[in-house]
Amino acid sequence: MVMTVIPRLVNAAAVSHLSCLHLASLSSLQSRRWTSDGLAMKTVRRGMSETATEVKRTSDGLGTSATRRGMSGDKKHSFQYFWQPGSGYYGESLGRVSKVATDICENFVLSHIDAVPVPSPTGVFTIGDYGTCDGSVSLQLIHKIIDHLRNKHGPDLKIQVLYEDHPSSDYNSLFKTIYGQTSYLSKFNNVFPIVCGTNFYKQCVPDNTCDVIISFIGVHFLSEESYVRCSNTIFPWRSTSEEEMRVHREAAARDWRKFLLLRAAELKQGGLLFVTQLLTELGDNTSQFRDTNSSVTNITDTLQNGKDIYRNLDLAWNDLHTNGIITTEEFQSCTTLQAYRTLQELKDPFEDATMSPVRQAGLRILKGPEDFLSPCFMKTLWREKLQTDGVDDRKMFARRLVQAYRLVLDATLRNTLEKTRSTEEQSDIMDQLYECFVERVAACNPETFQSEPYVGRLVAQKLK
Fold first, then answer.
1. Alpha-carbon gap, residue 35 to 33, rounded angstroms
2. Which of 23, 235, 286, 394 is the 20 to 30 A CA-CA neighbour of 115?
């Protein structure tokens, strides 16, 4: 696939005037707080959510599911929370982006649930939520699945809900979600939530455990073994190097196949796997899913997933390099462990009935993969403020994007910089990157800014 990419190497004179760049000693820079929209954006040292009081390091030095795989290629990583664990930060930031896409898929999921065999109305039905983060994105969907099962099979069916994530995820927030007033536990009896802290690139539960597994916007994070250094971009799918792209795509294909094989083992016969995956771009048959309020529907160029978010993050990182704030090695070694795939790449492991390990493991696609455009939550907030208050608050739009997407990027940045920088220097550099991004995005028109997630979805069934 040919993608339109904007090189990160820009003329120094074109960016040297940006007020977000400071050539003074990094360690002497002041912490910054962005408060015009009430977000209280703080440095990594002080945390980012409104309730944050200090930086907290996880027991094994890793981050939550949104950042756990977005790291550099070394085996040992350090990560600092920039929010207060238990504050629900993910659900109020990046989780808002994911939940819009999940809500779109509710009927897609519910319309297939009856395909799962339930041998006994007093047996155990297990639902797995893989890459759950704080549980906020899937809460409503799981509630509806339980309600559907109760209506069909009665009150005696025991329903087990398995929440999977990395051992250093924000489980304080997850438990608050599960046991909160809006949880399904407040309505249904005979429901048993459990938690698994095993990375989903390993088998998480014994064979034949799960009846339904959902993994929504999680499998684009890759295993650590799939790190590919991309010298001209933070984001591998934007690389302009054919060799880097080849190695990256091969690694992404291996991880996708491995994920499917592991889930095939965990599913019972007749069990269903629902997956949503961020795509590189939209196909030609997605108009029925598109956000009709967004002017991106009128763009004739190729629509790329979050194109302007990643382009401006790349350009901001280049600004720091051009102005001597980061070294060439730091600039070139900062690459996330993520893969945005095509619909065909999602389909590939299922294609060859005789040779495919996934098919041999019993998995068959029931429906999909199909793609859709998910509305950008931050753009919705900007529109609401414009329509309600008459305020075109483009900085609020930009800062909301930072609040969400630094969950993806922070660990990659810190693990790139920790090799050469003190903790304070790391934080100052990251602050400058995000401020440069805000200045760039605030100069754009949000209506034509490509920030919408492009999502592929499929459901597969284990038939043997």
1. 6
2. 286
pTM of the model: 0.82
Rounded Cα distance, 88 and 209, in Å: 29
Binned at pLDDT 50, 70 and 90, residue 236 comes out as very high
Closest CA to 71 of 3, 162, 168: 168
**In angstroms, rounded to a whole number, what is the distance separating the alpha carbons of residues 429 and 44?**
10
Half-sphere exposure of 209 (CA within 13 A, CB side): 18
Under DSSP, the state recorded for 333 is H
Q: What is the pLDDT of residue 305?
A: 81
Q: Which residue has the tokens 């690694």?
A: 251
Question: How far is Cα 320 from Cα 326, in angstroms, rounded to an integer?
Answer: 6
In the structure, what pLDDT confidence band is assigned to residue 190 with cuts at 50, 70 and 90? very high
Angle between helices 307-322 and 394-417 (to 10 degrees): 60
Cis check for the bond before 369: say yes or no (omega within 30 of 0): yes
Which residues does 248 contact at the CB level (< 8 Å), separation at least 6? 228, 230, 236, 237, 239, 339
Q: How far apart are CA 131 and CA 333, in angstroms?
A: 26
Tokens of 14: 């074109």
Cα angle 29, 30, 36 (rounded to 5 degrees) comes to: 135
Structure tokens at 346: 């999602």
| CA gyration radius, the chain | 22
Q: Could you read off the pLDDT of 145-185 as tens digits, one per residue?
A: 999 999 999 999 999 999 999 888 899 999 999 999 999 99
